[in-house]
Amino acid sequence: MSRYAENTSVAAEKSRMEIESTLRRYGADEFAYMTNKTQATVAFIAEGRRVKFVLAMPDPTSREFTHTPERRNARSPQQAEAAWEQATRQRWRALALVIKAKLEAVEAGITEFQDEFLAHIMLPDGSTVGERMVAHLDELYAGQPLALMPASTDRSGS
Questions:
Q1: CB under 8 Å to 7, separation ≥6 — which residues?
Q2: pTM, whole model, 2 decimals?
Q3: What is the mean pLDDT of the chain?
Q4: CA distance 63 to 80
Q5: Is residue 41 a contact partner of residue 49, using CB atoms and an 8 Å limit?
Q6: Range 96-113 average pLDDT
Q7: Nearby residues of 90 by Cβ (< 8 Å), 6 or more positions away
Q8: Does residue 150 form part of some domain?
Q9: What burial class does residue 14 get, using C-beta atoms within 10 Å of its C-beta: 0-12 exposed, 13-18 middle, 19+ buried?
Q10: Does 156 reside within a domain?
Q11: Is there a smaller number of Cβ atoms within 10 Å at the N or the C end of the chain?
């Protein structure tokens, strides 16, 4: 299966600027960007909420970049860097798509802002709702059946 924008030529910086432009168009008014070797963070305020997306950055030393996928031959340092840059561009394009799709779903009335962005809403300590909940999911599911449609709670007998 192919990845969205796997062959994009759009620079990561341009995608970041597009994200900010999209956010501004949908009413966000404060922005922050942070990067290090392993991740990039995009944060903003919209609808009275602080929202944070953490984008895992590809590891430039991974065999995915240092070797060819077909024969696993070593790539030159320039080829490895080009493959890593391509993966970085792809991830930024995917993030731009996700944010735009979420905002459009809210705008179209399909969902509410807080519901759509819930996992990414920042709590006062800087963590997100998603980070907090993931730690408790196994506990919440423990011993519970995984029915897609829970049993009816209608006790009227009809």
A1: 86
A2: 0.87
A3: 92
A4: 9
A5: no
A6: 98
A7: 3, 4, 5, 6, 8
A8: no
A9: middle
A10: no
A11: N
Number of compact structural domains in the chain: 1
Whole-number pLDDT of residue 133: 94
Here the tokens at position 104 are 């459009």
Residue 145 has pLDDT above 90, yes or no: no
Confidence (pLDDT) at 144 = 81
- 26 — alpha (psi -120 to 50), left (phi > 0) or beta? alpha
The domain of 26 spans: 12-141
Alpha helices in 62-128 (DSSP H): 63-66, 77-107, 113-117
> How far apart are alpha carbons 12 and 130 in whole angstroms?
25
User: Has residue 147 been placed in a domain?
Assistant: no
- Per the domain annotation, does 153 fall within a domain? no
CB 103 within 8 A of CB 22: yes
